[in-house]
Write a structure and sequence with these properties.
single chain; mainly alpha
Amino acid sequence: MSLINAILSAISGQPGAAGEAGANPLQGALSSLLAQNGGLQGLMGKFSQGGLGEVFSSWVGMGENKAISADQIQKVLGLEEVMGLASALGVDPAEAGGFLSEYLPKIIDKLSPSGQVDDSVDHGAGLSALLPALLAHIGGGGTGKPS
């Protein structure tokens, strides 16, 4: 439950985070994840190199998203990337890995609505538009377990 609380408090604006335009830790962490990995195209390459290209392609494609585990996420992205997200959200790396395994497929799916990777699209703006729906899903108890 602490990850959900961290995400919700990050979105609502923690004291001291307000000065910058768009100073949102979750959006910043997700934008950084995309940027540091070369956007959706770079992430797709990383997942392909890690043997999970078919999984990533399912997130982009128009069909059902294939599941991925937190361990697979960590193997593909690396421990540093997962720890960076954990640090940005103020949670344990295991929780951050779980968050990514649950929500990265949904995020990638929503950032590729045409069923193709289009790096000419501003994914930062896409994340801004996606976050309210993501939070409604997280906060609304979509697939979350009650504590």
